[in-house]
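Slide 14.
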Amino acid sequence: MNHAASGKLRSVVLGLGSYLPKRIVSNADLEKSLETTDAWIVQRTGIRQRHVAAVDEPTSRLGLYAAKAALADAGLEASDLDLVIVATSTPDFTFPSVATQIQAGLGMTNGAAFDVQAVCSGFVFALAIADKFLASGSHRRALVIGAETFSRLLDWTDRSTCVLFGDGAAAVVLDARHGEGIARDRGVLTSHLRSDGRHREKLYVDGGPSTTRTTGHLRMAGREVFRHAVGMVTDVVTQAFEATGTSAADLDWFVPHQANRRIIDASAEKLGIAPSKVIVTIDFHANTSAASIPLALAVARDDGRIKPGDLVMIEAMGGGFTWASALIRW
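Slide 15: predicted structure.
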């Protein structure tokens, strides 16, 4: 029996693609309709601008553009896939899922497609789920997409929330390949998912089909979210280090969810991760929820920072609360 076959199936990133809507809304634009300033927003969040989807750009369209880009990057066709998982909190419809619409848009008729809802942690949850499918041997190739149109959920008169979010999508193609079961393997090395439903009132949307029969608006107790965020994300990152026998010193890149610059900085500092290893895109993407991590990965890969063989930690926290980490050898 050869050594590779006796090892462990790993989910290796073959392709990466992203899409941002053309319309950019700057902080200066928001100053015209809100009692806020660019300086206030930048100081408290690190955000300078955000992309906003056009009227004819539902979440599935953003996700489809990102999916096509990821497949092209991987040199694959839709028929090469057997699994599509979309992380989103802003679906086009109550049903069918965004994933099945993207599946149809790709011309893919085989395999399974479904959505995952874990708010800002959604991409890490979706990646972990895809990894379990691939590592089990039941599926060979997966497309994992984070896609959001959070602009549709915002109360644009609420200056405490509407300045924070943006729209976008990004996707990765994963391929099941044999590794040796060690931290030097390429692919997803470990993932750690957590949730605690007692925190609903701190970050939620005040509508839904079985309550108000409306979409509702996003509501957030910002200080409470901040208070929990750093501890929660550092816990799951530490668990990932322990599970793989690695440490902050071994990381090439730390790619956190892009929610707030102060949370990003505080988390990195608590974990002992050098600022030079932290990928930050919040200044020009804002918080794109489940799309934020793959969008940040795309920026850092495309500009040459993330290279094959690099050790990359991703982490996020979202409404619910949900929080999660995954360690990937690129």
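Speaker note: Residues 222-244 form the longest helix (23 residues).
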